[in-house]
Design brief:
Number of strands: 0
Radius of gyration: 15 Å
Strand content: under 5%
Order of helices and strands: HHHHHH
Largest sheet: none
Distance between the termini: 21 Å
Number of helices: 6
Helix content: over 70%
Length: 120
């Protein structure tokens, strides 16, 4: 799919640029305050969605173990975004089904981030 190839190229180029400019220095671990994300977005002139994706990739890049407290905070941070972006789709589902769908989306996001990070 050409749009997926474009998305990959944009993600790689944005991440390289942000890393070259130490955009994530001092950000720390998840959760990152919305004001910090907004400031990065304005400074680097990226859309909120794109800055959030790049920030999440940078956070994941610095996590050494999926069993760490940092990964647990990262997982909650990303799942909250996924839930907020998909409230319409999740509406009407029972709580267990919602949890399952968000968990599946989270796993897909992490896999995609790892794939992209391996290309940097």
């Amino acid at each position: 799919d050409p749009s997926e190839a474009f998305d990959d190229m944009r993600d790689r180029n944005d991440m390289r640029y942000l890393l070259d400019h130490q955009a994530f220095a001092g950000v720390g671990e998840a959760p990152v305050p919305r004001a910090k994300i907004d400031a990065l977005q304005r400074r680097f002139k990226l859309s909120r969605r794109q800055m959030t994706r790049c920030l999440e990739m940078a956070l994941l890049r610095d996590i050494t173990s999926e069993k760490s407290a940092a990964f647990a905070r990262f997982r909650l941070f990303v799942k909250q975004r996924i839930y907020a972006q998909n409230t319409d789709l999740l509406q009407g589902m029972d709580p267990d089904e919602k949890k399952q769908k968000v968990a599946e989306s989270f796993a897909a996001v992490v896999d995609d981030y790892r794939r992209l990070l391996s290309l940097l």
